[in-house]
Amino acid sequence: MAQTPESPRLTPQLCFNQTALRDFLRVSRGTVDDTISQNLNALVTPGTSKTFDPTSTAERAPRPIHRRPIDSEACRTFKDKVLFPSWQNRSDVLNYCAGVATSPDPDDPDHVLRQTQDLKARERVVNERLDPYSARYFPQEARTEALAGLIRNERMVENIIRMRTWGLVGERCGNVESDYEKALDTWRRGEGVR
């Protein structure tokens, strides 16, 4: 069974280090969600199928319409021990970083530089007749604004990945719950997760 990566220590430095944040999300998704078919195939116990029928090779079948079903207990264990904890770890990191993005950032190293640039832009004389580009000014984005944009994008990606993964799990395991968010919330209540 796939092992979910450890959740990183939640600090503002993790959030502002976009490479580390994206690496954690990428590795976590790659371990469980991107390889969901392989993970589900690993749950099928070899040798539990009926005995070999030699007449089955007489006709060529394009592809099996139904894949072999997976034992419901194995599916439940996979969801409870691998899938949902992985999703929860990523949700925890994204929620924490969203909080960091909406908080004031007293340690922003570019704060003074942005203030200086803003002051120079206000003092600049604009004559668009002589220079049509003199009015343009593109203020530098604050770290918190860049982080908020990154979190928005990663949440959209997370939603797409979870819908795809849950659809594949539903095909193979026969999910009772059609909405992954409800299933995850049910797991959270059962596991005592916040």
Automatic annotation (TrEMBL):
GO terms for cellular component: mitochondrial intermembrane space. This is Caffeine-induced death protein Cid2. InterPro entries: MIX23, MIX23_fungal. It holds the Pfam family MIX23. Belongs to the MIX23 family. It comes from the Eukaryota.
